[in-house]
Amino acid sequence: MVRILMVCLGNICRSPLAEGIMRKKLSENHIEAEVDSCGFESFHTGDPPDPRSVEIAAEFGIDISMLKSRLFKTKDFDEFDRIFVMDNNNYALVASRARNKEDLSKVDLIMNVLNPVSGAQVPDPYYGGDSGFLKVYKMLDQATDRIIEQIKSNNFKAL
Ligand code: 4NP
User: Fold this and answer.
1) Which of 3, 13, 14, 81 is catalytic?
2) Does the Cβ of 8 fall within 6 Å of ligand 1?
3) In 3D, which of 103, 145, 139 has the Cα closest to residue 120?
4) Which residue from 48, 38, 54 is spatially nearest to 68, judged by alpha carbons?
5) Quick one: CA dihedral 33, 39, 45, 49, positive or negative?
6) Per-residue model confidence (pLDDT) at position 81
7) Of these residues, 36, 76, 87, 124, which one is catalytic?
């Protein structure tokens, strides 16, 4: 069973969307997996996702309204096989908690699944308008399609 953790800063905009999209695709493809999301900013801990993330997910038939923001914990390195972060800041925060090379090897920018040398980041839409959420949705839709392909072709952990 694959275990995937999606990480952003607040765990209310990007990573809950990533979790919801991934969950739907795993279910549609009958893939047994565990998916969760978390962040590093405690301001929203326990809160549901930002209404704009809930709305864009709903437009695509995904319900993320029941998710609750939580903080990253070091034990997440033991509980997940892959830790996908949205941007370089998230990467640095997760990497700073890595205990060894194996922990660090689990962490990658999510957009690197499409092009490992691009270093592309999923921009934080929190302070922008609604179009930022659609852009984030589209990026995550593409990345999660590739993750599903990789799982199906057994290429997932060998990334
Ligand atoms: P996210 O966006 O990392 O995509 O959830 C943010 C939402 C809230 C905050 C930071 C980022 N915040 O600091 O409140």
Assistant:
1) 14
2) yes
3) 139
4) 48
5) negative
6) 96
7) 124
**Ligand 1 proximity of 42 Cβ (cutoff 6 Å):** no
Question: Are 38 and 85 a contacting pair, CB within 8 Å?
Answer: no
Tokens of 57: 């997910």
What dihedral do alpha carbons 116, 11, 76, 108 form, nearest 10°? 10
pTM score, whole prediction: 0.96
Per-residue pLDDT, 129? 86
Per-residue model confidence as pLDDT tens digits over 127-158: 988 899 999 999 999 999 999 999 999 877 75
124 is annotated as an active-site residue: yes
Domain ranges (residues) in the chain: 2-152
CATH number attached to the domain at 2-152: 3.40.50.2300
Q: Which residue ranges in the chain fall short of pLDDT 70?
A: 158-159
The sign of the dihedral angle between the CA atoms of 12, 15, 19, 21 is: positive
Q: Name the residue at shortest CA distance from atom 3 of ligand 1.
A: 9
Amino acid type, 74: T
Structure tokens at 107: 């962490």
Q: Do the Cβ atoms of 4 and 33 come closer than 8 Å?
A: yes
**Ligand 1 mean position, distance from CA 104 (Å):** 23
Helices 130-152, 14-28: axis angle to 10 degrees equals 40
